[in-house]
Amino acid sequence: MYNRIRKQLNGILKSPEGPRGACSGDDHVPEFEAHRHIRLLTFNIQVGISTSSYRHYVTRSWQHFLPHSKRNQNLDRIATLLRNYDVVALQECDGGSLRSGYINQVQYLAEASGIPYWHQQLNRNLGPLAQHSNGLLSRYRPLDVTEHRLPGLIPGRGAIVARYGVEEDPLVLVMMHLSLSKAAQQRQLAYIQELISRYQHVVLMGDLNNHAEELLTNTPLKHSNLVPLPDTAHSFPSWRPERALDHILVSPSLEIRRSEVVSYAASDHLPIAMDIRLPQGYLETF
Predict the structure, then answer these.
(1) Is the residue at 109 inside a domain?
(2) Which tens digit of pLDDT belongs to each residue from 20-63?
(3) Molecular function terms in GO for this entry (predicted)?
(4) What CATH number is attached to the domain comprising 145?
(5) In this structure, what DSSP letter does residue 268 have?
């Protein structure tokens, strides 16, 4: 499948009847195993565009609309990084349009990195021009995966919720890409806070377009008791990180063994990684 996708990208571009959100299914995905820790990564991949300067937003802007011969090479670089993690949240993926060579980038990265489960959420469907999507990659079979449309004046933002373990006490991972508008973020995080309020073990991860202090003190997440990365975890822009826009926030029940901004320039954002330990006694529930 991976080789076939590569040939598609390098061959003659043909438009499909209309790509939609999709997933790999779980036929060959291992059950969630009670390992003592889980390696997480969140990465805004900017539809596979490599950006290393502000001027590239102008000189490479055409790559947001048209295919580029080196895009798949950059995706392969990203896939090399993803092999080191158990659960990956992806933002700014293309689900299969002209600019990506009609390749579902979530599927491509899953197969290139050897991660068996993938789920693509299509948030903004511009037909053959663009298929704006979020993605989930996982080495373990989720209990279930649900998609959520986030509120906002301009539609097109979404969240993927994956639950692992058992129905009675799941580990809940929420992957999302928030709007730039502060007003929209308030509405979106109110929705997310209601979604996670009944769970004890929660991870929020993604491009939240805001700093952790603001998110956890001046938005509905202030009621969540989530633990952030250090304030110094700057991820944007990738060539001179000055802003902490990408986050992995976890419940106090989940011990952070290690967290870092990964120095891996393949987008205009740097990826964020975290290794979490499951709660004491949680392993015995499986």
Answers:
(1) yes
(2) 678 888 778 988 875 689 999 999 999 999 887 777 878 787 78
(3) endonuclease activity
(4) 3.60.10.10
(5) S
**Region at 23 (left for phi over 0; alpha for psi -120 to 50; beta for the rest):** beta
Radius of gyration over every alpha carbon of the chain, rounded to an integer in angstroms: 18
Peptide bond into 67 cis (omega under 30): no
What pLDDT band is residue 15 in, cutting at 50, 70 and 90?
very low
- Whether 78 is in a domain gets the answer yes
Buried b (16+ CB within 10 A) or exposed e, 132-151: bbbbbbbbbbbbebebbebe
* pLDDT value at 202 more than 70: yes
Query: Which of 118-122's residues contact partners 24+ apart within 8 Å by CB, and which partners?
Result: 118/23, 118/24, 119/22, 119/23, 119/24, 119/145, 119/160, 119/162, 120/21, 120/22, 120/23, 120/93, 120/95, 121/21, 121/147, 121/158, 121/159, 121/160, 122/19, 122/20, 122/21, 122/95
Residues 269 and 272: their CA atoms lie apart, in Å, by 9
Specify whether the CB–CB gap between 77 and 65 falls below 8 A: no
117 phi and psi angles, rounded to 5 deg = -110, 135
In total, how many domains does the chain have?
Answer: 1
Q: How many CB atoms lie within 10 A of CB 21?
A: 20
At 7, the pLDDT band (50, 70, 90 cuts) reads low
Q: Tell me, yes or no, whether 270 lies in a domain.
A: yes
Residues 172-186 pLDDT 10s: 999 999 999 999 999
